[in-house]
Structures are given as structure tokens and as C-alpha cells.
Write a structure and sequence with these properties.
Helix content of chain B: 55-70%
Strand content of chain B: 5-15%
Structural class of chain A: alpha/beta
Largest sheet of chain A: 6 strands, mixed
Oligomer: heterodimer
Number of helices of chain A: 16
Number of domains of chain A: 2
Strand order of the largest sheet of chain A: 5-6-7-3-8-9
Number of strands of chain A: 9
Low-confidence stretches of chain A: 310-418
Largest interface: A-B, 49 and 37 residues
Number of domains of chain B: 2
Mean pLDDT of chain A: 72
Distance between the termini of chain B: 38 Å
Radius of gyration of chain B: 28 Å
Structural class of chain B: alpha+beta
Helix content of chain A: 25-40%
CATH topology of the largest domain in chain A: Rossmann fold
CATH class of the largest domain in chain A: Alpha Beta
CATH architecture of the largest domain in chain A: 3-Layer(aba) Sandwich
Number of strands of chain B: 11
Mean pLDDT of chain B: 86
């Protein structure tokens, strides 16, 4: 990966879109002077309620709509320029497919639109069908597919050209938790391979899990923009997570913290496993027992051609068997594992962002108290966090870490509510 | 169409078996003595050839479309759409139904040549009409439905320009039409040959089938008489002097057309006892090929009862003979090759006088109308070649209709786009008749306002009819049915006018509209 400063792949300046009626009278102002910049190698989230201008923005970026005012540049070109489109993969909010084509023919078609040579086209199609778990049903017309299966083939078509910029509009709509997990893992995987992802979703937890930067739209204007951690950091609370403690062991800890004089313990509770993890566990169990299904398969490794040029070391890594990812701790890829697991494994306290560390870290005296408290886990002494500029403090994804993350998410959620 | 490899092999096996069965039937038919057995073999051969042509053409089209060029990808998917949505299958079924049932409706007591001509006329006409409708609906539907179903979001987010998208659709339509025309052509040819094995009413009927119908005859009209232009000028001057109001009211151009038409008619009129000579040139090829040359005449009279035959005299190069000339019916006479000069010139003289009793000549004016009223024909090609050229011309017109449908779909929804394209098609098909009818439109309209309205309407329709008249000009079905040559030059002219100029104009319009169109809707 290059160390160059991230360049803007998509740049919108003063973007305005007014929809008019038959008599050309202004009907809806969908976007109102939007400024947006999507940088290379980041996962960018576009959030907002219905009618806020998210899909309109995407359609303008793709050249499906024309701006009323303002300027859009995609890879330094106009959105209508086919040279820019050659680098884009797009999954619309619903998989608009040719019902009479089967999965392979669908991918053949889109591969032809990229003018891929036959052998290369077939190689990629085989990999993508395996990746999205539709190998077994590849000769069934997609009109007979369930919505989730259609999403999967939709995703595969978006990846056929090994895009530099992947635009995902509500990608997890209609997907089961396995598919949802798969999409999120894929996004992280693609990011690790140097891809840029524009994610538009109503599922805020999905966005939070994978996005580096987020823009929240309302009424066609930007209401908030920044990294996820900048936007979500809660600077007046700290969470500890320990192995199980008996109630009588909790009280001294609480007393110790409160006796330090700076903070009050607001809540102590046992964490719960996330429903998503439980679901994936059950599916994995059924799979291990050999139970049959007529739907999509579990999915295979990420297609090796995706970003192969950028990250050759990643290409051979078998990833994206969702249940396996969820349960056995097989990571998206080794690089991401290194990037993400290290700080999490060595850092029992979740810190929102490196930039916020100075403000949120307890003072030295408190730290000593904490060290005493954690003396039973000397081996887990915190280590300096390695630099991970593109994904600061993203939680763990290995097996043990996943549970930790569930706990953290759970706590964070509750904390937010409190 | 089969979706799996197993399905494809199943189809291949079934087709192979069917092919073997058909081959057996052909051998059986060929070894029999009865004509119907040969005819049955020919019909089976035609049907088989049509089926195999369909599959071979399909394979060829898929092969052609397999190159890594985005518009070809669009074309291939369009082809799959048309086939799998059963559009093509419905067309083939309707056509086969027509082919099988139509011969059953023909009167077996009528001359064989008429039965064949009826069959050809109906099947070729129906093929053209069905394919025209199919093309318009498919062209409008494929774009409109992709926009309505939002499938176009995915397609146009790929590196495919709007023009390339439309081009791909056009290529797909052109290939589908070529495929279906091949199938239809082979089926029509097979069944026509089967009909031709039926017994003719008499020797003349059998001759007519071979020499007047299942043949491609070149047609020659007599040269204009030397004084025609001078006569036209003289008549124009005369009317201008005597009735300038009439010229002003009719309009200069229309007036001149009317005068010319009248003078030409007069040049083909014969008063009782009058003699008139007509010169035909361009018969060198007929002499060279020793082809059968025919003189075809149809006489109209004022006042003679129908079914009457007038006794007259005709002469080739001065050698006179008497004939019985039917009123309002065709008379076909063989022209001896020795009567044609080495320069391909034939001189025909018609004398409107009873050769046996000149004083008993029927007192009426005989008119041999320009066009079908007086012409010389000779065999210049085969029925098969003629049929192929006619189908090629039909294909070119279908390409234009594809462009028209696509153009309408670039800015309208499916129902309105189809309606607009159908209206243009109907108008273009009838533009020849409309152009003639307009000459007299609004002449007796009462009231100034109504007159003005009629004038505006006449002007608008006149312009449209003038623009679209080429479409009705290239109508090869009548030529094939009457055994007239569809000339290669006509096919090229059709390709130039309809295929290049018109289709190019509609394609350019479609591109200009579509590149500016917002294919997505406003929902956010």
C-alpha cells in the first residue's frame, strides 16, 4: 500500500439536485449544496433518513442523474465518462437483475460490459460464484432466487471488474445474518486490499462496524462528517472488561475506583453474547451436522482477483466462510488480523481513538490502581498501539475478541442509552 | 431454452434424432413416384431447414456476439431476453400455424398459380407484419422496461456509454430479425415448393406456375414517346392562358403533375382505327440468355361491357397478327426472340381495328395504362433469389423499425412509445396511398375555416408522406407474388435510404435524447 496522502476519488462541490415536474416546476430539492470527498482506500459511510439525498448522491456519482448545480468528479473525470465507470463497482439498493438469466449468465453479461476476455471472465465468475455461495444454483434463473440470493449475485456483479471504488447502497437489505456478516467482512477485506468503499446504509451498526469516515445527510445537506470515532467518542466514561467476577469481588473494585475520587462506577453487569454470534454458531453447527439447504451456500473465499495486484500476499488466504469467521476465529486476512487483533488483544480498555487517548486516559495515580487491580493478568500488560491510521482502534475480530467486541458493543449501546 | 449443460445435451440429442427421422422421410419421398411424395419430402425439408437454420443461426449469432465488446454483450443479452421471454417462439408458432392452415383454405378448384400466389402473398405479408409489430414492441419494451424496472441502473453504471447501449440493442434486434426472417423464408420456400407439386388445372396453368410465378422476371415499360415533353409543355401553356385561376387554385406543382399524368395517359390511348407504336429497349440479356420473353397487356375501355373481347391487330417489328384482346383482364403473349433486335430493341405496334371487318371495329377508346397495362417481361433470375432479395429488403425495413422503437423508448414510457412507433409505421407503410389521396383532399371543403384547417392538415401530412414515401416504395411482396424481379439495385437503394439514412437519423436522434436523459428517478 502506498504511503502517499489519500487522494480524493470522488469529489462533490456545491452539489445541488432539484427534481422538476412535467412542467419543469421545481418539485423536490434533493441535494442542497453538498460538499463531499471520498478518499482513496477508505470505507466511507453515507447516512441519513429516508429522503435525505443518499441515493440521489450515489446516482449523481454514477451519472444516472445530472446535477442541477455544482460539480462532481469521479477519478478526476465526469461521472458519465466510461473510463471512470470502468473502475467502479455498484450494488444498487435492490438487485435489479435480468430474471431470465441465470447467475453465471448474469455475471457473463456484466463481465462483457467491462470487455473482459473470455478466459479471465470465466475465472472471475467461478471465483465470485464460490465466494457468494451460489455455485450450486448457478444455472437457475435469478428470477427464481430469494431476495438474499439476489443480493449475493448483485454483489458478485459489483465485483466482476475488481473495482477500485465499490459503491454499496443498502448492501445488507434482504440478507440473513451470515450474508450481513459476509458483506461486512468483505468490506474490510477490500479495504485491506487498497479498495475504496462507499457504503450507504440505514443499519447504523453496520456502518459503525466498518466505516472509517461517515457523513450524515439531512434534507440534502451535510449535518455531520468525520471519522466514526470522532463522531461517536464518549469521553466521559471508561469500560473495563475482566474475566468473570463474583459479586463479592466486584464491590472492592467499585469501591477502589470510587475511592480514587475522580469517577463514579455507573454500571457493572455480565456481558451477553450478541444474537448475531449465536445465529452464526447455530448455522455452523447445522453445517457441521451435514444438514442440507436449497438456498445459497455458506460462501467461499474472497475471489482472489480482487485487488490481487495490490496485495498479493492476501490473495491466497481462504477467508469469508462466515460461520468460520464467526466461530473459529479465521480472520478476514492476515493483514487485517495483524492490524486489528494486535491492539485489541493487548488493550483491555477500549479507547475511542488515538487522538482522544490523552483526554480519556486516567491520570498516573489511577493507572497504578488499575494495574494493581489487574495484577492477576500481568501478561496482558498494555502495549503501545501500533500505528493503524486507516482504521483506528477497530475492535477485535478473532474468536475471543469477537466476544469481547460483542460485550463492548453491548456496553457501548447501553452506555449510550443511559 | 435449456439453462443447464444437461438440458443442452438433451436438446442436442432430440434434435439429432429429429434430423435422422427427417432424413429418412426425405429419402422415402425422393424414392417414390407420386408427386405428392416428392412434395411432402420438400415440405419436410423446408420445415427441417427452417428449424436447423434457427438453431444454426442462433449459434452463429451467439458466436458473433461473443467478442469482448460491450455493445455485443448488450446484444447477446437482448437475444436471450427475446428468446426466453418466448417472443420469438410465439412468432415461429404463429407463422407455422399460418403455413399449415393456409393451404387448407385455398380452393383446390382454382388455378394452381393463383393458389401459390395467394399463399405467397399472405405468408410474406403476414411475416412482414408480424415481425414489424414484434420489432416495435421489443424495441420499445427492452429499453422502457429496463428503465422502469431500474435494471438500467446496473447496466449504465458499467463502462457502457448511452450510445453503445442503444447500439447493442439495435444489433440484437437486427440479429433476431435476421434469424426469424431466415426461418420464415425457409418455411415459406418449402411450403411453396410443396404447393407447386400439386396438379395444375391445365397446361397453361402449369406454364404460368413455372414461367409467371416461380420465377424472377425483369419488367420493361415502353419508352416515353419522343413528343411527350413537348406535348406536356404545350398543354401547360394552354391551360395557363385559358384558365389561370385553375392553376393558382391547384398549385403549380400539382397542376404540372396532373397535366403530365394526363398526357401520359393520352399517349397510351387508342381511338378506333388508331395505330400506336411502343418501343421497348434493354432486352439484350434476354436475347443473350435465350430467356422466354412475354408481352403483358391489360386494356381498359370506356363503355365496353366486361367479359368482352375486342378483335385487334398487333405487330412486332412490323409483322402484324390478329388477337382477341379481353377488356379489363390480362393478356400474356410470348414474344419470339427473333423479333428482338441485336441491340435489345423491340418495336410493338397496336392497331385498334378489327382485322377481319374494319368497319365493325368497336367504337370505344382503348387504354393500356402506364405500368401494368403494357409491359414486357423476361426471366432474369430464380424464385429463390427473388425471395432472398425480398427478405433482405424486409430486414432492412425492420432495422429501421428497431431504430424507430428504440428512439421512441428513449423519452417515452412503453405504451406511448409503442403507440408512436406503430403510428409512424402505419403512416410510412401507407404513405404512397396517402400521397395520392392528398391531391384531392380538401377540394370541396365548405367554409374558410375548414378550408384553412384542411390546408394545414394537407401540408403537414403531405410533408410526412413525402418524407416517408420511401418506406412504401420498397414493398417487394407484390413483386415476388407476381414473379417480378426484385432487383439488386432496389435492395441497395433500400439499404441506402432506409438502412443508412433513415436508421442513421433515428439512431442519432435516439442518442441525442438518451445521453441527456436521467434514467434514475428522484426517490432518495
Amino acid at each position: 500500500m502506498s504511503n502517499d496522502a489519500p487522494t480524493a476519488l470522488v469529489e462533490c462541490r456545491g452539489l445541488t439536485k432539484v427534481f422538476r415536474d412535467f412542467w419543469l416546476r421545481p418539485r423536490v430539492k434533493a441535494l442542497n449544496g453538498l460538499d463531499l470527498e471520498i478518499r482513496a482506500r477508505e470505507v466511507f459511510g453515507l447516512l441519513g433518513p429516508n429522503g435525505s439525498g443518499k441515493s440521489t448522491t450515489i446516482k449523481l456519482i454514477l451519472g444516472l442523474l445530472h446535477p442541477t448545480a455544482g460539480r462532481i468528479s469521479v477519478f478526476g473525470r465526469l461521472p458519465s465518462d466510461v473510463r471512470a465507470k470502468a473502475k467502479i463497482g455498484y450494488l444498487p439498493e435492490e438487485s435489479y437483475l435480468y430474471r431470465f438469466l441465470n447467475a453465471r449468465e448474469t455475471l457473463e453479461y456484466y463481465g462483457r460490459l467491462f470487455e473482459l476476455e473470455r478466459s479471465e471472465r470465466r475465472r472471475r465468475i467461478d471465483m465470485l460464484l464460490e465466494m457468494v455461495g451460489l455455485e450450486a444454483v448457478q444455472h437457475r434463473p435469478v428470477g427464481e432466487y430469494s431476495k438474499g440470493m439476489q443480493r449475493r449475485i448483485g454483489l458478485a456483479q459489483a465485483l466482476i471488474n475488481d473495482p477500485e471504488l465499490l459503491i454499496l447502497d443498502e448492501p445488507t437489505t434482504g440478507l440473513d445474518p451470515i450474508g450481513t456478516r459476509q458483506i461486512k467482512d468483505l468490506i474490510l477485506h477490500l479495504k485491506a486490499r487498497g479498495k475504496t468503499v462507499l457504503l450507504c446504509s440505514h443499519l447504523l451498526a453496520d456502518v459503525e462496524d466498518v466505516c472509517d469516515r461517515v457523513t450524515v445527510l439531512y434534507g440534502g445537506r451535510v449535518r455531520a462528517q468525520g471519522t466514526v470515532d470522532e463522531l461517536l467518542a464518549k469521553r466521559d466514561a471508561v469500560i473495563f472488561e475482566t474475566e468473570g467476577l463474583k459479586p463479592e469481588e466486584v464491590e472492592p473494585v467499585r469501591a477502589l475506583i470510587e475511592s480514587a475520587g475522580h469517577a463514579k462506577v455507573r454500571r457493572v453487569e455480565a456481558p451477553r453474547k450478541k444474537l448475531e454470534a449465536l445465529f452464526l454458531e447455530l448455522v455452523e453447527q447445522a453445517h457441521a451436522e451435514g444438514a442440507t439447504t436449497h438456498g445459497a451456500g455458506a460462501g467461499g473465499p474472497v475471489a482472489g482477483f480482487l485487488g490481487a495486484g495490490a496485495e498479493s500476499a492476501v490473495a491466497a488466504e481462504p477467508v469469508l466462510t462466515p460461520a468460520a469467521v464467526a466461530l473459529t476465529g479465521t480472520r478476514v486476512d492476515r493483514e487485517v488480523l495483524t492490524e486489528l487483533a494486535q491492539p485489541a488483544a493487548s488493550q483491555p480498555v477500549s479507547v475511542p481513538a488515538p487522538a482522544a487517548e490523552a483526554q480519556t486516559s486516567p491520570p498516573a495515580a489511577d493507572r497504578q490502581v488499575l494495574n494493581k487491580l489487574l495484577s492477576g493478568a500481568e501478561t496482558e500488560t498494555p502495549q503501545p498501539k501500533p500505528p493503524a491510521p486507516a482504521k483506528p482502534a477497530q475492535p477485535l475480530l478473532n474468536d475471543a475478541a469477537r466476544v469481547d467486541r460483542s460485550v463492548l458493543d453491548d456496553l457501548l449501546d447501553k452506555d449510550r442509552r443511559s | 431454452m435449456p439453462h443447464s449443460a444437461a438440458g443442452r445435451w438433451g436438446w442436442a440429442a432430440a434434435l439429432t434424432l429429429a434430423g435422422l427421422g427427417v432424413a429418412g422421410a426425405i429419402v422415402w419421398a425422393a424414392t417414390g413416384g407420386a408427386p405428392w411424395r416428392a412434395g411432402a419430402g420438400m415440405a419436410v425439408l423446408g420445415a427441417t431447414a427452417a428449424t436447423w437454420a434457427f438453431f444454426a443461426g442462433l449459434a452463429l449469432a451467439r458466436g458473433l456476439l461473443s467478442f469482448a465488446w460491450a455493445p455485443l454483450g448488450v446484444a447477446r443479452t437482448f437475444l436471450d431476453e427475446a428468446l426466453r421471454m418466448r417472443v420469438a417462439v410465439v412468432f415461429v408458432c404463429v407463422l407455422l400455424l399460418l403455413l399449415v392452415t393456409l393451404p387448407l383454405t385455398l380452393d383446390p378448384g382454382s388455378p394452381l398459380r393463383y393458389r401459390i400466389q395467394t399463399f405467397l402473398s399472405y405468408t410474406l405479408g403476414a411475416t412482414g407484419l408480424l415481425l414489424s409489430f414484434m420489432t416495435i414492441f421489443l424495441a420499445c419494451g427492452t429499453v422502457c422496461h429496463e428503465v422502469e424496472d431500474k435494471r438500467i441502473y446496473t447496466v449504465l453504471s458499467k463502462p457502457l456509454s448511452r450510445g453503445a447501449y442503444l447500439l447493442g440493442k439495435g444489433i440484437g434486434l437486427a440479429l433476431l430479425n435476421a434469424l426469424l426472417l431466415c426461418v420464415a423464408g425457409l418455411a415459406i420456400w418449402g411450403f411453396t415448393r410443396l404447393l407447386a407439386t400439386q396438379p395444375a388445372l391445365d397446361a397453361e396453368d402449369a406454364r404460368a406456375v413455372a414461367e409467371d410465378v416461380l420465377v424472377a422476371r425483369k419488367t420493361l415499360a415502353p419508352e416515353a414517346s419522343a413528343g411527350l415533353e413537348e406535348e406536356v409543355r404545350r398543354r401547360i401553356r394552354e391551360v395557363e392562358t385559358n384558365d389561370p385561376a385553375f392553376v393558382a387554385e391547384t398549385g403549380r406543382a400539382a397542376f404540372e403533375r396532373q397535366v403530365r399524368h394526363q398526357v401520359e395517359l393520352n399517349a397510351h390511348n387508342l381511338s378506333p382505327h388508331q395505330r400506336r407504336t411502343f418501343i421497348f429497349t434493354g432486352l439484350e440479356q434476354a436475347v443473350r440468355d435465350r430467356a422466354a420473353v412475354q408481352l403483358r397487356m391489360r386494356m381498359r375501355t370506356s363503355g365496353a361491357p366486361p367479359n368482352l373481347e375486342l378483335l385487334m391487330r398487333i405487330a412486332f417489328n412490323g409483322r402484324e397478327r390478329g388477337i382477341r384482346m379481353p377488356v379489363n383482364a390480362y393478356l400474356v403473349l410470348p414474344v419470339p426472340l427473333e423479333e428482338i433486335g441485336p441491340d435489345g430493341r423491340l418495336e410493338l405496334t397496336i392497331v385498334h381495328e378489327n382485322p377481319l371487318a374494319p368497319q365493325q371495329t368497336f367504337e370505344t377508346t382503348a387504354t393500356f395504362l402506364p405500368g401494368e397495362g403494357l409491359e414486357v417481361l423476361y426471366a432474369a433470375g430464380s424464385f429463390e433469389g427473388n425471395l432472398a432479395r425480398a427478405l433482405a429488403m424486409q430486414w432492412i425495413k425492420l432495422i429501421f423499425l428497431s431504430g424507430l422503437g428504440l428512439c421512441a423508448a428513449t423519452f417515452l414510457g412503453f405504451p406511448v412509445a409503442s403507440l408512436l412507433a406503430l403510428m409512424v409505421f402505419v403512416f410510412a407503410s401507407s404513405s404512397g396511398y396517402l400521397g395520392e389521396a392528398l391531391e384531392f383532399f380538401g377540394e370541396n371543403t365548405p367554409g374558410e375555416a375548414a378550408k384553412l384547417l384542411a390546408a394545414v392538415l394537407k401540408a403537414v401530412v403531405g410533408v410526412l408522406a413525402a418524407v416517408l414515401k420511401q418506406f412504401s416504395r420498397f414493398a417487394p411482396v407484390d413483386a415476388v407474388v407476381s414473379g417480378r424481379l426484385v432487383e439488386g439495385g432496389e435492395v441497395w437503394a433500400c439499404a441506402g435510404w432506409i438502412g443508412l439514412a433513415w436508421t442513421g437519423a433515428t439512431g442519432a436522434t435516439a442518442w441525442l435524447i438518451f445521453r441527456k436523459r436521467e434514467v434514475a428517478r428522484g426517490a432518495s
